[in-house]
Q: What sequence folds into this?
């Protein structure tokens, strides 16, 4: 079983006690349907090394394996969509980094197990880019980076026409505090309150994420 405590000091300073796997699974079973929906969004706001996010990713990949392992392009497309909807933030930089690497390794092991030498580096690059953009080093209480004091910015990823992704960046603070809203019509034509993006990006192919600086971190 993985260690739940790294050091006494980290427990005292940051309340860092990791949740064990059995509890993670039991808690996620309470929202089982959502954990198995490929594009459902999960944010772990004090993610540590990603115990909840790792299990969510595994469950989503189980569904993708069942449905799409006969078509590599479909498997890749849905895996990138699954990854794009997984978010985390932690106040300790090493935790955020460990979480990114852990999630990437889960993806990579599962990808390699299914497609072996047919795996494409550009799919791995897109996955790595998304973990870099979605798993952030930040303080979830004041919504800033603890060192730079810059606001935490999360990216929303939406699938368009199958293979394209739309990125919109939002300030975490406004997503949580529900300020700076304006009314829009949602897909069903009903009025909906949404937060104003601070940046809107051109569509990008799901295998081109991180290819150039138009999709900067
Ligand atoms: C109890 S651990 C839980 C970690 C993980 N969610 C789990 O269940 O295994 C708490 C985590 O919150 C982080 N943390 C503490 N204060 C925080 C804050 N203000 N903003 C973001 N993360 C914070 C710690 O670094 C630690 O990784």
A:
């Amino acid at each position: 079983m993985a260690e739940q405590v790294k050091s006494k000091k980290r427990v005292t300073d940051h309340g860092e006690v990791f949740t064990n796997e059995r509890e993670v699974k039991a808690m996620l079973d309470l929202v089982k349907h959502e954990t198995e929906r490929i594009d459902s969004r999960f944010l772990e706001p004090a993610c540590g090394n990603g115990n909840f996010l790792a299990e969510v990713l595994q469950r989503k990949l189980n569904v993708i394996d069942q449905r799409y392992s006969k078509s590599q392009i479909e498997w890749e497309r849905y895996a990138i969509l699954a990854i794009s909807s997984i978010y985390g933030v932690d106040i300790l930089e090493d935790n955020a980094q460990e979480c990114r690497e852990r999630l990437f390794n889960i993806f990579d092991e599962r990808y390699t197990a299914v497609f072996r030498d047919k795996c494409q580096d550009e799919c791995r690059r897109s996955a790595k880019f998304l973990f870099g953009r979605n798993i952030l080093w930040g303080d979830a209480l004041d919504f800033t980076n603890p060192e730079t004091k810059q606001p935490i910015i999360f990216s929303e990823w939406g699938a368009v026409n199958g293979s394209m992704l739309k990125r919109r960046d939002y300030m975490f603070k406004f997503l949580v505090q529900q300020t700076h809203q304006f009314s829009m019509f949602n897909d069903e034509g009903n009025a909906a309150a949404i937060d104003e993006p601070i940046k809107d990006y051109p569509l990008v192919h799901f295998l081109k994420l991180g290819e150039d600086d138009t999709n900067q971190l």
